[in-house]
Each structure stands twice: as C-alpha cells, then as structure tokens.
Write a structure and sequence with these properties.
By secondary structure, the chain is an alpha+beta fold.
Length: 974
C-alpha cells in the first residue's frame, strides 16, 4: 500500500512538474505580442471600434500568473472623431489563480489599473461616444471559422453571475484615473479624478474594506469638490437577493460652499432583488451638526416605484454654508441660544409609483415652533420625458405655514416693538396643470388679522426657459390687503408717537392683474387709508414689458391714468409732524389726476389737473427716455412740457418770520476779490456731479400769480432750456411791483462756481414798494426803468458780488429821497434855503453804471428836482457797502457847488469838496484876469499868456486853497 501511494505521489508530482515545465516552455515560446492584431480584430468585430495596443504585452508566472498590458487605447463609437479616444490606459494587470486553471477555470485574483482616462461625449443630437448600438449593428458578421470564438447564446447568465459573485478577489486597485463628460448640446463639462479606489478581499459574505479618494469639478459653474470615503462593506448573495451592510462608513468631503472639510459617520444597509430589480435601503448618517435617517423601498422596471420615510434633525447653522447662506458666526442670529436656527426637525413620507408622486406627513420645524411648515397632502404626476426642464405634469397640494417673525428679527439685532410680529400664518391650495400654477384661497395673516392679505385666485405660468428675461410667462389674479398699518410703520423708522391716535388705523387695497406675452395689465387698483385720508385709484394700466432694456422702468409702452387725493396736514399730524406754516389753513386738501403714456421711448404726461388748497395747476409734459433716437449716448433723458398755474402764495407755506432785531442792511463785509480756494482744495458747485449734466429739458410755464417772500409776481410767462448742465432762460416776463419785467440769461449749473449771465429790463416798477419789501428800506421811492446786462459766478451772495461784471442803466421818475441831507451843513444861504426837512422830491434820478471786480461804478449820475440838480460819478464797494461819490450841486442861486458823498450806504455823509471848490474859484479868478487883460490891452489873449496863468494857478493852488478856506470860515462862521 505504501509503495502504491508513493508511486501515485511520484506520478502526480511528475505530472505537476511536467505541467509547470510545459507552462514555462510555453511562456518562453509563446509571445502574447504575436496576438496583438488578433485581439484588436476580435474587439473590432464585437464593438465596431479600434483597439490599439501600443505598449508590450507580458505574461508572467512568478510570483503569480499575471497578464500585463501598457499604453492601451479604445476609439469612440462610429460618428465621432477618432480623437480624443474613448479610453486611454497607461497600465492594466490581471493576476490569476493557477490552481483553478487545472479545472479549466480562469479565476482573476487581483485587478490593478493605473492611469485610466475616459472621455465621454454626448453630441448635439444626443448620441453618446460610448454607445455601441449603432456601431455593433453595422459591424461585420463573424466568419464561419470564427463562430467558435463567440460565447454560446444558450449559456446560463444566472450561473455566470453566481460564479462571479461567489469568486474571491484579493485586491482591486485603481489609481490616477480620470473621467471627463461633455454634453455639447447642453453646454456641460464635468471632470472626475479618481486618485485611488481600493477594495480588499472582495467576495461573498466577506468584510470588504474599501477606500475612495476622488475629486470632482464642474468646468462651466467653476465648482470643485473633494471626497474621501471609507468603511467596511459586507454582502450576501442568495438565489434572488443581494443583502448588503455598510458599517463604520466615513465620509470626508470638501467644497468651496462647505467652507472647510465636513466629516460624516454612519451605517447603511439593505437588500437588492435581482429578479424583480427591487429592494430596500436603510441608512443613518451622523454629522457633527445633526443626523439624517432614511428608510426606502424601491423598485426598478417599467413602473418606477419608491416609498419611504425621511427624517432630518440637528443644527441647521452647520448646513447653511452648503446652501450658500453666510451668517457670521459672531452674529446674534448664529450665536444666541434663543436663535431659531439652533434646531431643525423635518420628516416626511413619500410614495412614487407609475410617475405618480404622493407626499404626506410632511412636517418642517425650525427652532421648535418658531417656524413650522406642513404639507398635509401632495400628489404630483411626473412627465414621461425625464429630460424636460419642467418634470411635473400635474400637481395638487395644500400647505400651511406658521412663523414667529420676532423670533428671527430680535436675535439678529433688529428691535421689534412689543406685541408686533408675534405670528404670521399662511394657507393655500396649489394646483398645476400644463405648467400653470393656481393658488386658491391664499391667505397671509399677520398678528391675528392685524394685517391680512387675501388672494382668492392667482395663476402663474413659469417661462419656458430658465434663462428667459422674465421668470413668468403668464400670470393673473387678484389681491386684497386690509388691516392696521400704523404699528408696523415704526419698523420703518416713522415716529411712533402720534398726535391723532385715531388716524392711519385702517388700510384697504385691492388689485387685479394679468401678464401674458410680456403684456402687463392692471385694473381696479384702489388704495385707501381711513376711507378718505389718502385715496389712490388706477382704473386701468396696460404696459408692454421690455426686460432686456436698461431703462428704468423697463417698459417699451405704457398707458394709464390715475387719481390721488389726500389731506396732507392730517396725514402729517398723524405721523407726529406739525407743519410750521404761516397760515394754519394750508395743506388742507390735495388732489391730482393725470394720464401717462410711453411710446417709442417717449413718456408723456397728459391732462394733468392738480390742486393744493386754492392753488391749481394744469399742463402736460413729454420726456425722452435713455436710448431714444437723436440723443447723445451720454444723455440720460430729455424733457419738454408746459404748465399753467393759478394763484400760488408760497409765503403761506413758509414758517412764520422769527421776531428779532436786525438791521435792514446786511452786515458789511471786508472788500476782497473773487473767492478763491485754498491750495489743494477743489471747489464744489451745488449741482456738480448731479444728473443735470446729462439731461435735456425744455419747460414752458404760465402762471397767473405767485407770491414768495412777499414779492408779488403776476402773469408770469417763462421758457427755459436745460442742455448738459447749461440752463438757458430763453424768455421770462411778468408783472412785479406794479411794473413789467423781462429777462433772459444762461447759467452753467454743474461748474464748481456756476457762471451766470443775465439780461433784464423793468419798466414802471414801484421802487418804493420793491425796496420796502426786499430791504425794508423806506428812504427812496419812485417809478423805475432798469436795464441790466451782467455776468457773475456762483450762487452765493459773496461770490456773486465779488465776481459781478457788466453794465446797466437806471432811471427813477417822480420819486422822493428821505433821510439824506443833500445840502451840506455850512452851505451858502442861497443853497441852504432849498433844504426840505430831509426829504427831496425829484423829477428823475438815474444814470449808467458798470460793474467790475466787486465795484459798481457810475460814470454819470443825475438827480433833477424843481429847485436843485446834482450830477456826479463814483463807486460803491458791493461787499463792504462803502460809497465814494463826487458831484456838483446846482441851484437857482449858485452853480456847481462840489460835493463829496461817502460812508456806509445806510449812513451816508455829504460835505463840500474843498479841493474842487478851490480849483473852481482859482479857474474863475484866472479867467477874470485874462478878460481884464484883454479889455485893457485891446489885444487878443495869447495862448502863451493863458498857459502862464495856468502855471501860476497850479503853483499857487495850495496857497489859494488855504486863503479860500480862511475866507469860507469867515463867511460861514467856521
């Protein structure tokens, strides 16, 4: 027996030795590279695609039997370019067990892949470069002698699957692999990098440890993400089911939205039925901020079926970065223990069968009961075409929402008045048919009907494309708002201390609207506060929307008419504001009605009729909006219009004057030149940087009477033009202080110191009333004719006076001067007798003047009365109000008495000009001497003699003046 056993062992050992020797000889003799073309041809026959083996093929025995290939590439399906290839592989190694080869079985022990790159492409027509259906159909049929190389069609697929699942693979390792997917029709580009995928001890009912390290990128959206996954997988295979369990599952993920790495631990398990393609999935995942629990029954087949429960609990603050919601960690809303964001509890039960989705028991709670949303029922029918942008075909649901707004606002640092925003409730039924959503019975109830919004029915149809200009293609419905708005106005910063606690307590508003093909229509819009305190009505409005327009508002056409009425004083009183007007009866009633139309970028205000108290206004206006033809590119808008006003007394609306003592004349200012800025300082005009520099406007104004600062203006006609910051007063005329006035001019409004040029003319103006009204000046009266042609810079008093330049003339007729003694003290008796107790009645007074560098210069000034006349010249320093004049006084008794008028304008002094008087006296003496010489000699006076006498007068002028002074002292007793 022992000898027999020994022989058997020797025979078996010999056979094994022969087998290995034969195998070694075969490996030495057989070169797998000789079969390159055969392998490529078989792949070509099976797939219709070209397989390239650029690297060497190698077959090894030790330490394991292994087949190794390098630089392998597979062409894409027919109809795609050969480049890039569908797959490129740097290296693949299949390690096989040797013993199963004795029984004719090829059993893979390990699979190693390195540098696999898949390029997946879907073209515009929707075909895939990995889809072999067309290429396989067109592939040539195998020859008769090749039929044996194809697997027999009657092979038992279930048996092969059982064999595969029950086999054991020691190691599966994929490294440095990448997958890129491009959808040319939908402009999608995704990239997946598989750094490593490792599976150890792959086999039935084994604990398979796995590790996955991958990165994903969306090239179009710029999103990058990293994922590290690990754990233990165990599965069992029965005749029908695969039962699997994942334990110690660890997920380490990172994306820009997560703001750091996120770690998740958990377990999962379930079963998958191979025959019915159905199964069950249960999982529990725990995150540091909460947990997710799910139980799901699913089926795959002609009828998509899924039913299960989903629950989510935890701290939503940890989930906000994933939703791209940023709340600073140190903000009260995030850090407060009372924050409603500190807890989340959500659950639902759903069922999906045969394209019908139903939802029940959907409950969402945030911060306990601070935010609760419930969906009692939801049913939805899904579209057959899963690629549709709107996957819903039909929808029916009811929802309820309960919210405590104050709980969200207070932790965020927003102060809420006591008793407000304690509850907000919303209810509605929603249905969708053919992409049309209908909201029935929508109700928003704030603080137990303190404010109530109701919408009996609203229909909304989303745009066909998510990238459409407007999110809605169609909409129609009606709204009603009722309640007490006053408590909530305090949230907008309105003073909560009302004088009239019974006002602003009742708001009523209603509106009907429709939107179809960018056509918007409103009707029946009414807005009322306290029945008649504020009433706004828009009977109808139709507009054509142009969402692509950069204009504001984005209308290409508009037609509407509206009316508004209010009681401004009562409204202000209710807001705790008391208008400080001179007349307490003002602001009693306001009403307005007008039409608006927009066509071809031209906005027209028509049939305007408005009134405030006793003031009425009528007119129309037209404005070209940006982009209108003929306007410069930088122009924002142009405007033209005409208004007709009745009687407007602005003084009634101004605050009453304060009782204070003040001089009727401005405080003198030291004379200086035009205002200059400090080094490094830039002057800023009142309108500099405003939109006035980009506006064209033309206005015609016709007003019956206007009163402002007690200045009465009547029958005013005005035409003005504004073009790129330059205001042109083309025509302005009217009645003022009993006379007529007309003016024209220009002003550069957007300059640092606006340059102004003005031409004005008055006729028959009552100078006494004008000076009394403007300066409280009573010393000068008469009817004045005035011509002005002036230019200046700036709009402030100082800059105007210091830069005043131009000319003009004035003539005052039938007037009177009071408080100015034109007859100086010590004047000869012949002159003194014309003194009129400080008041002089004159026939006319006037002359021409020029303005230069802050001075008003008179070259010729004349005052004529019945008894005296004064002529002279001089200047007034406009800033300091200092007067410096020299003149000649003439009466019936004395000719040419020289005078000096100087001092501040409100306290002038008049004196005799002794120097001028001396020169006059000396000249007269010289003339008399020459006349005497001519009479005595009987000869004409030679020019040389006249020159000689003039020289003597000049030399003796000082002595003559002194003698004249002594003589005058003797005459006047001074």
């Amino acid at each position: 027996m022992k000898k027999l056993l020994k022989k058997v062992i020797l025979i078996l050992g010999g056979l094994i030795l022969v087998f290995f020797l034969a195998l070694g000889i075969a490996l030495l003799v057989i070169d797998p590279n000789d079969y390159r073309e055969e392998i490529s041809r078989l792949v070509k026959q099976a797939t219709g695609r070209q397989l390239e083996l650029k690297g060497r093929l190698s077959l090894k025995i030790f330490p394991r039997l292994a087949l190794n290939a390098r630089e392998v590439s597979l062409a894409p399906a027919q109809g795609f370019e050969p480049e890039p290839p569908l797959a490129v592989l740097d290296e693949i190694s299949l390690r096989m067990a040797i013993l199963p080869l004795f029984s004719g079985e090829v059993q893979v022990d390990a699979v190693l892949l390195n540098g696999l790159n898949l390029n997946l492409v879907t073209n515009v027509q929707g075909r895939n470069n990995w889809d072999d259906s067309e290429s396989a159909t067109n592939a040539p049929l195998p020859a008769e002698n090749e039929a044996s190389s194809l697997p027999p069609p009657e092979e038992d697929a279930q048996k092969r699957l059982n064999t595969l699942l029950q086999s054991r693979i020691t190691e599966v390792l994929l490294e440095n692999c990448a997958v890129r997917y491009q959808h040319q029709g939908q402009n999608q580009d995704y990239f997946l990098r598989l750094n490593q995928l490792r599976l150890d001890e792959v086999g039935l009912n084994r604990d398979i440890s796995f590790a996955l390290d991958m990165e994903a990128e969306d090239g179009k959206a710029g999103i990058k993400a990293g994922l590290i996954l690990g754990g233990i997988l165990k599965y069992m295979f029965t005749e029908k089911d695969i039962i699997f369990n994942l334990k110690n599952l660890k997920i380490d993920a990172e994306t820009p939205q997560l703001q750091g790495r996120q770690e998740i631990n958990g377990n999962a398990g379930g079963r998958f039925n191979l025959a019915s393609l159905a199964g069950r999935l249960d999982c529990l995942l725990r995150h540091s901020q909460g947990e997710l629990e799910m139980g799901l029954d699913f089926g795959l087949g002609q009828k998509l079926l899924a039913e299960g429960d989903l629950g989510l609990k935890g701290n939503p603050l940890g989930l906000l970065p994933v939703l791209k919601i940023e709340i600073p960690r140190n903000s009260p809303l995030a850090s407060s223990p009372d924050s409603p964001l500190s807890s989340l509890d959500a659950s639902l039960h759903f069922r999906l069968q045969d394209k019908l989705l139903s939802l029940s028991k959907a409950d969402f709670r945030l911060g306990g009961e601070k935010l609760r949303a419930r969906v009692p029922t939801l049913t939805a029918l899904l579209e057959e075409n899963t690629s549709s942008q709107y996957p819903l075909k039909k929808l029916e649901l009811n929802f309820e929402l309960a919210l405590v707004p104050e709980a969200f606002l207070s932790p965020a640092g927003i102060k809420v008045p006591s008793g407000l925003l304690r509850s907000l409730e919303a209810y509605s039924s929603v249905s969708m048919q053919g992409r049309e959503f209908t909201f029935s019975g929508l109700s928003l109830n704030l603080d137990q009907q303190n404010m109530l919004l109701e919408a009996p029915s609203i229909k909304l149809t989303p745009a066909v494309s998510p990238k459409a200009d407007l999110p809605l293609a169609q909409a129609e419905g009606s709204l009603q708002i009722k309640g007490n708005p006053w408590p909530y106005m305090a949230l907008a910063g309105v003073n909560p201390h009302r004088q009239d606690a019974g006002s602003l307590n009742n708001l009523e508003s209603s509106l009907n609207f429709s939107l179809k093909e960018n056509n918007l229509r409103l009707s029946g819009f009414n807005f009322k506060i306290d029945s008649d305190l504020i009433v706004l009505s828009i009977p109808s409005l139709s507009a054509r929307l142009d969402p692509a327009s950069k204009n504001s508002p984005p209308f290409s056409s508009l037609e509407t008419r509206l009316s508004l009425s209010a009681k401004p004083r009562l409204v202000l009183n209710a807001l705790g504001l008391t208008p400080k007007t001179s007349d307490p009866e003002t602001l009693g009633a306001f009403s307005a009605g007008f039409g608006l139309s927009l066509k071809n970028n031209e906005l027209t205000l028509s049939a305007l009729e408005a009134s405030l108290d006793q003031t009425s206004i009528k007119g129309s206006a037209t404005s070209k909006l940006p982009g209108a033809a003929g306007l410069p590119a930088e122009t924002l808008a142009s405007f033209r219009g005409g208004l007709q006003l009745g009687v407007l007394d602005i003084d009634r609306y101004l605050p009453p004057p304060e009782a204070k003592e003040s001089s009727p004349f401005p405080t003198p200012v030291a004379s200086r030149g035009a205002r200059t800025e400090k080094p490094g300082q830039t002057a800023q005009g009142p309108f500099q940087g405003s939109v006035l520099g980009h506006v064209q406007a033309e206005l015609a104004l016709d007003m019956r009477r206007l009163t402002i600062k007690k200045i009465p203006l009547e029958n005013i006609v005005l035409q003005a033009l504004l073009d790129k910051g330059e205001l042109t007063l083309k025509k302005a005329q009217g009645k003022i202080f009993g006379g007529s006035v007309s003016a024209s001019g220009k002003a550069g409004l957007v300059s640092p110191l606006p340059p102004v040029s003005l031409t004005a003319k008055t006729r028959g103006l009552d100078l006494g009333k004008a000076l009394l009204t403007l300066l409280d000046e009573k010393r000068l009266s008469g009817n004045v004719d005035l011509n002005l042609d002036l230019a200046f810079k700036g709009l402030e008093n100082e800059s105007i006076l210091s830069s005043l330049d131009g000319k003009g003339d004035i003539l005052v007729k039938e007037g009177k001067i009071s408080g100015l003694d034109l007859i100086p003290q010590g004047a000869p008796a012949e002159i003194a007798r014309y003194r009129q107790s400080g008041a002089y009645v004159f026939n006319d007074f006037g002359g021409s003047f020029t303005a230069r560098q802050g001075k008003l210069i008179n070259d010729h000034l004349t005052l004529k009365s019945r008894d005296i006349s004064v002529t002279g010249s001089g200047s007034i320093a406009l800033l300091s109000r200092e007067v410096e004049y020299k003149g000649m006084l003439t009466t019936k008794g004395i000719d040419n008495l020289p005078l000096i008028i100087r001092g501040p304008i409100h306290n002038l002094s008049v004196s005799i000009d002794l120097e001028a008087l001396a020169n006059i006296t000396a000249t007269k003496a010289a003339e008399k001497a020459l006349q005497d010489l001519r009479k005595k000699s009987g000869l004409p006076v030679l020019q040389e003699s006249r020159d000689g006498l003039n020289k003597q007068i000049q030399k003796g002028g000082e002595k003559l003046e002194q003698e004249l002074q002594r003589g005058l002292n003797k005459i006047f007793g001074k």
